[in-house]
Every structure is written in structure tokens, then in C-alpha cells.
């Protein structure tokens, strides 16, 4: 259960974004979140968490910068913030939350809420909704906690398919932060968003069991939407190429999510014309498979987004 930390030196900076830095430490791939750890430069003396790479995790096979000993100490906190993210851990830090500064809507008034059990569904869902709609992406725990890790979210924001990314609960480094999925949806409604797309970050937590996976966060979002008078839509996880029987056809993850939903949830997985053209130029990838390898996976998610768009008519 111990943290696997190692002292290292930054040997290269590969990509520098405002919210994410890809670098190498002692020649090994590493990521850093500069809004949390401070800036990173070649030659910096750092402490990195090496456990995911040592485990050979497919979606987390890189080190994560834990602390920059050269230029990341005694960084100032966010002015006026007092609600902690990751409280009572060594990574706790205070962040302003939307609930503190804005009155939340009492009801969603029928706002569509698309619920994804995998991060790889987010791009085709947003493509299905299309441009001209104010969309908030709401990241729930169940995969990566850092919103800034996601190249997919950057892509849909750059395309104009998502306006704002909300980090809920333990999730960090969003454009906006909220305490719960319910408050995030209420905030989105009060801020004038027309659709919310809820999902976990990259790298779903999984134990190969019906209830032991991070995708169940989709049920949490659906139930919050139902309770607040929204219209939840499940992006069905479906595959014709997954080698695992439990994920062939409609995945057992999708069935588990539906079993925990307490209200009516729209399920849309029918054939949808035009999904490839709508997704052109966007990053489509699931378990190393693209749209030509497992088209039904992306088409099913796109259909959920199209259903949300239809509800706005």
C-alpha cells in the first residue's frame, strides 16, 4: 500500500501545455500537472511516483511528478479558496468551488445529461451533440482524477463541442470545480448550459466484476439527473471486437449501470448515419482500437449524443 516514490532529474521536456507537461525523468516518460506542482524545466530535481509504470499499466505506463524540489516548493495557494481537494492526503490543496460563488439551479428542467461509463465515449458523444449547443463536460471519479490529463477533452473543446470542463469531488484541475455530481449539474443549468456530458477520466478502474469498476459513476450521474428533473441518457458500452466475452455485445458494465439507475434512463444504440463524418479529425480510440477496428463502440456513443441533441428540439 506504500507510495512508490523515486528521486530523479528531468532529462527532457517533450510537450508543454498550460495544464499538462509531458517530459522524461532519467529517460523514462513522465507527466506533470504544472497548475498543481509548479513549472517544470529540464534539469529540475524531482520526486516521481513510479508505481504505474512498474506495474506495466496500459493507460498509466508513465511516471507522475509528485514534487519539484527545484522550483515547486512554497507555491502560493489559490486566493480565497478553503475547500480541499484530496483532503487529508499529502496532495491536499484548496480550490474555489462553484457552489461558493453562484446560486445553483433548483431543477434541471429537462436538461439532457449523457452518462458515459468510459472516457473513450466522450468524444463520439460530443460529436453526436454537435456544434451550436452549450455543453459542459462533468468529470467523475472512477478513472484518472486529473481533467488536464485528457487529450480527448482538449480536442472537443478546441473543436467547439464542449465549452467547460468541471472537476467533481476528488477530480482535480478542471475549468470549474464542484463538490458533487448533483451540484455540478445544477451549476451547469444555472450557468446556461443546454447539455451535460458526464464521464470518468482516462483509465477506468476495473476488477473484472459486475460492481467493482469505475464506470458505475455513470449511474451516480444518471440518478442525480433524475432527482433534479433532468433527462439522463446512457452511452451504452458496446463492442464487436473486444476479446473478453463480458464486453462483447452490450458490456456487463452497461448492464450494471442500468441496474443501479433509480429512474427512467434513455438508452440509444441504434445505427446512426453520418457518425464517421461528424467525428472526422477527432481522436477516437478505445483499448487501442480505432473506428475501423470496432465501429459499433463509437457509433453507440455517438447515438447517445444525437439523442441528447434531439431532446433539445
Protein described:
With 313 residues, this protein is α/β, with parallel strands linked by helices. It has two domains: 64 residues, OB fold (Dihydrolipoamide Acetyltransferase, E2P) (Beta Barrel), CATH 2.40.50; 214 residues. 26% of the residues lie in helices and 24% in strands. The strands form four sheets. It has a seven-stranded parallel β-sheet with strand order 11-10-9-12-8-13-16, sandwiched between helices. The protein has a five-stranded mixed β-barrel with strand order 1-2-3-5-4. Strands 6-7 form a two-stranded antiparallel ribbon. Helix 4 runs parallel beside helix 5 and helix 4 crosses helix 10. It is globular. The termini are far apart. The model has no long low-confidence stretch (mean pLDDT 93).
Q: List how many beta strands DSSP finds.
A: 16
> Which structural class matches the secondary elements?
alpha/beta
Radius of gyration: 19 Å
Main sheet overview: 7 strands, parallel
Can you give the helix content as a percent range? 25-40%
* Count of domain modules: 2
The succession of helices and strands, N to C, reads: EEEHEHEEEHEHEHEEHEHEEEHEHH
Beta percentage is 15-25%
Detail the topology: elements first, then pairings.
Elements: E1 5-16, E2 21-25, E3 28-32, H1 34-37, E4 45-49, H2 51-55, E5 63-68, E6 83-85, E7 93-95, H3 98-101, E8 112-116, H4 122-129, E9 135-140, H5 151-158, E10 164-168, E11 176-178, H6 181-190, E12 195-200, H7 217-227, E13 231-235, E14 238-239, E15 249-250, H8 252-260, E16 266-267, H9 275-279, H10 295-311
Parallel strand pairs: 3-5, 8-12, 8-13, 9-10, 9-12, 10-11, 13-16
Antiparallel strand pairs: 1-2, 1-4, 2-3, 4-5, 6-7, 14-15
Helix pairs in contact: 4-5, 4-10
Amino acid at each position: 500500500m506504500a507510495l512508490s516514490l523515486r528521486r530523479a532529474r528531468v532529462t527532457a521536456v517533450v510537450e508543454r501545455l498550460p495544464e499538462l507537461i509531458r517530459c522524461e525523468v532519467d529517460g523514462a516518460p513522465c507527466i506533470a500537472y504544472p497548475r498543481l506542482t509548479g513549472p517544470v524545466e529540464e534539469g529540475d530535481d524531482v520526486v516521481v511516483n513510479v508505481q504505474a509504470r512498474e506495474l506495466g499499466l496500459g493507460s498509466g505506463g508513465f511516471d507522475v511528478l509528485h514534487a519539484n524540489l527545484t522550483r515547486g516548493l512554497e507555491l502560493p495557494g489559490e486566493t480565497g479558496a478553503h475547500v480541499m481537494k484530496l483532503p487529508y492526503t499529502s496532495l491536499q490543496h484548496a480550490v474555489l468551488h462553484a457552489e461558493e460563488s453562484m446560486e445553483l439551479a433548483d431543477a434541471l428542467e429537462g436538461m439532457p445529461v449523457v452518462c458515459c461509463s468510459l472516457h473513450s465515449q466522450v468524444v463520439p458523444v460530443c460529436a453526436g451533440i454537435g456544434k451550436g449547443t452549450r455543453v459542459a463536460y462533468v468529470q467523475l471519479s472512477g478513472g484518472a482524477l486529473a481533467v488536464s490529463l485528457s487529450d480527448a477533452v482538449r480536442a472537443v473543446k478546441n473543436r467547439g463541442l464542449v465549452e467547460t470542463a468541471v472537476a467533481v469531488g476528488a477530480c482535480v484541475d478542471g475549468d470549474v470545480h464542484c463538490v458533487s455530481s448533483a451540484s455540478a449539474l445544477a451549476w451547469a443549468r444555472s450557468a446556461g448550459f443546454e447539455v451535460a456530458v458526464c464521464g470518468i477520466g482516462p483509465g477506468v478502474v476495473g476488477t473484472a466484476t459486475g460492481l467493482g469498476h469505475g464506470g458505475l459513476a455513470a449511474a451516480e450521474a444518471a440518478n442525480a439527473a433524475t432527482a433534479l428533473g433532468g433527462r439522463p441518457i446512457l452511452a451504452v458500452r458496446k463492442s464487436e471486437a473486444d476479446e473478453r466475452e463480458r464486453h462483447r455485445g452490450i458490456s456487463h458494465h452497461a448492464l450494471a449501470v442500468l441496474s443501479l439507475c433509480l429512474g427512467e434512463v434513455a438508452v440509444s444504440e441504434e445505427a446512426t448515419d453520418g457518425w464517421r463524418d461528424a467525428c472526422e479529425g477527432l481522436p477516437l480510440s478505445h483499448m487501442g482500437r480505432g473506428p475501423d477496428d470496432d465501429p459499433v463502440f463509437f457509433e453507440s456513443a455517438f447515438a447517445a449524443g444525437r439523442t441528447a441533441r434531439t431532446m433539445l428540439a
